Amino acid sequence: MDLVQMETFLAVAEERSFSRAASRLHRTQPAVSQAIAKLETELGEVLFDRSSRDGTLTDAGEVLREYAAKLLNLRGEASSALSELRSLHRGRLNLAANEYTCLYLLPLLDEFRRRNPLIKLAVQRSLASRISDEILMHSVEFGVLSFRPDDAQLKSVIVYRDELAFVVNPRHSLAGKDKVSIRQLGTQNFIAHNIPSPQRQKVIQTFNRHKTPLQMGVELPSLEAIKRFVEMGNGVALVPRLTVEPELKSGALVRIEVPELQTERRLRLVYRKQANLSHAALAFLKVVETYAASQGDPYSFQAER
Fold first, then answer.
1. Is a pLDDT exceeding 80 seen at residue 122?
2. Which conformational region is residue 66 in: left (phi greater than 0), alpha (psi within -120 to 50 degrees), or beta?
3. What mean pLDDT comes out for the span 124-152?
4. Would strands 92-97 and 189-193 be described as parallel, antiparallel, or unpaired?
5. In angstroms, how far is CA 87 from the centroid of its own chain?
6. Are 230 and 193 in contact (CB under 8 A)?
7. Residue 229 · residue 220 · CB < 8 Å
8. What is the mean pLDDT of the chain?
9. Distance CA 88, CA 163 (A)
10. What average pLDDT does range 276-295 have in this prediction?
11. Is the peptide bond before 298 cis (omega within 30 degrees of 0)?
12. Cα 7 to chain centroid, rounded
């Protein structure tokens, strides 16, 4: 059985005439009769009482009529749903980010929702080391990474420029200085993130290169916890600037320049190179590009090879 057969069968049942059904379907009467005969052969049932002039349905025909109507209604619903997807009146956009990179997404998600309020958004919190795999497994359409993915199946676009920020609380002995040397930090107690990362390794290597001890006396599971702990006066921290902008504006934390630790971080929007992106995903890409053009640095939209 196929939908064309169901449409033909339902037309005959509703018109109670093979000739009127043929006219409605813009087909010849022999073609309609042949289609019904083929359907009856496939089903092994007689669907119309041929002795009746008004195309009366048999018991088997009555049963099939209900299912044929459901199938054709589903076809109409599917067509409408696809049309709604194209017009962004329905759909879902799945993204993956970690605690840090999710902050970059917030203003973009806000802008996207203003333009497309009916699209459901879902940001999945993931370790950066797993985001590439989740994209390739089709679990999400986009991921945000602070490093360029190695897999050739992925495409990346640089979307934000960030940097490491050395922060202390306002009562700290270094809080009044605009700039310090890395060698002045050898006695400081650093509050560190307990998840290994390429950035953490770079910091360790920088301290080693300058023959300065790096004392990480406390390790915490989130950037939010690190900020709060530093605010309480329990040490100092190196965190992405994006994550401490509210605290720097409010004065809860103070940033001090450390020339040896000035490291630029580029955030990337990552997706499958050969992907047929959903209508929602294509609309989100457009929002990212437009937002970068209107806001300027540190936002950008620069494709990588």
1. yes
2. alpha
3. 93
4. unpaired
5. 18
6. no
7. yes
8. 92
9. 36
10. 94
11. yes
12. 39
Straight-line distance from the first to the last Cα atom of the chain, in angstroms, rounded to the nearest whole number: 49
Residue type, 82: L
What dihedral do alpha carbons 212, 127, 265, 288 form, nearest 10°? -170
Tell me the pLDDT tens digit for each residue of 95-106.
999 999 999 999
Q: Which amino acid is at 33?
A: S
Q: Taking residues 251-257, report their average pLDDT.
A: 97
Q: Phi and psi (nearest 5°) for 56?
A: -65, 140
Contact yes or no for 25/65 (Cβ under 8 A): no
As a whole number of angstroms, the distance between CA 128 and CA 276 comes to 23
Q: Which residue's structure tokens are 């107690």? A: 189
Q: Which two tokens stand for residue 267?
A: 């955030």
| 42-86 tens-digit pLDDT | 999 999 988 776 678 999 999 999 899 889 888 877 887 777 777
> What tens digit of pLDDT does each residue of 205-247 get?
999 999 999 999 999 999 999 999 999 999 999 999 999 999 9
Distances (CA, A) of 64 to 2, 5, 24, 43: 13, 11, 20, 10
How far is it, in rounded angstroms, from Cα 302 to Cα 127? 24
Closest CA to 8 of 49, 67, 24: 24
Nearest Cα to 237, choosing from 164, 173, 181? Answer: 164
Give 239's strand partners.
Answer: 165
The whole-number pLDDT of residue 1 equals 72
Which structure tokens are listed for 3?
A: 């939908």
